[in-house]
Amino acid sequence: MSQSTLPSTLKAYSVLPDNRSPLERALELALSEALFSIDHPYPELLDAQKTPKESIATLASEKQVPIWDTEDTEQVKRNLAGNSWKIRQLSGTKAGISLALKSFEFLSEIKPWYQQSPMREPYSLDIIAWEKGNKPVNVANAKKLMAYIEDTKSERDNIELSLMFGVETTLGLMGARAPSTNVKEAEASGDLWPMPKASMSLSVSAAIPPAITVQPLNLLAVVPVIKGYGRLSLAAVADHYSFTISQVNAKAILE
């Protein structure tokens, strides 16, 4: 005789009235046993990460996802459907906003007013977000991101969203007789619209064998931005060179 698959709670609980007969109760248990002995035909139907692609939109509708775009990637759609209820539970908190950003494949740093220097007005939040893979800023994604944050944040919160993105840079080193060279911090700002690309080149020529230090390169742009890439290449021929290369940062502020 096979072991019963009926949950223990259903063995004690009955939908029948108190004046039920033993036969009625036996039939109820037998039918329940028959139903629970059947394997679930769609065990992953309600799992947003595993449900069939065709069911994602229906699952998102059932969970009342506030922001939905058919042009989004499949992974973003699964994230939105899977995180929707959790984000609602965390609405008005840093964790909720961070999870909303992760749903769109964005990582983030969130600083409330009391952690900013100088301290800003109460309930001001400074959010720095960047898409996984150092992808360029997409105007449509930025707008959807801001709309989802508005739906998630507290009514009293004042959000400033800054998007980090990549830019194309080149760094060349050539050997020649020259004094030591230091390249210090440089800043540049510009409006990257409607240009499809923004690029900056930095070339350093050095003597035998000086130390070369390259400090951070910061760029500021105003979205919408079409395209940008980040890459830092370094090549040297002479021996005993000492190089210090800091990262290249770029930030777009959504206005």
Quote the average pLDDT. 74
Q: Name the beta content range.
A: 25-35%
Large-scale geometry: elongated
> Uncertain regions: pLDDT < 50 for 5+ in a row?
190-196, 223-241
Q: What proportion of the residues is helical, as a percent range?
A: 25-40%
The total count of strands amounts to: 11
Any idea what the radius of gyration is? 29 Å
Record the strand order, biggest sheet: 1-2-3-11-9-6
Distance from first to last alpha carbon: 70 Å
Structural class based on helices, strands and sheet pairing: alpha/beta
Number of spatially distinct domains: 2
| SSE arrangement, N to C | HHHHHEEHEEEEEEEEE
Task: Describe the largest sheet.
Answer: 6 strands, mixed
Tally of separate helices: 6
Describe this structure in a few short sentences.
The chain has 255 residues and is an alpha/beta fold. The longest helix is centred in the N-terminal third of the chain and has 16 residues. The radius of gyration is 29 Å and the shape is elongated.
For the structure shown, list the relevant keywords.
single chain, about 260 residues, alpha/beta, 2 domains, six-stranded mixed beta sheet, three-stranded parallel beta sheet, about 25% strand, elongated
Question: What's the SSE blueprint?
Answer:
Layout: H1 8-12, H2 22-36, H3 56-62, H4 74-89, H5 94-103, E1 106-112, E2 124-131, H6 139-152, E3 158-164, E4 168-175, E5 181-183, E6 186-191, E7 199-206, E8 211-214, E9 217-222, E10 242-245, E11 248-253
Parallel strand pairs: 2-3, 4-7, 5-8, 6-9, 8-10, 9-11
Antiparallel strand pairs: 1-2, 3-11
Helix pairs in contact: 3-4, 4-5, 5-6
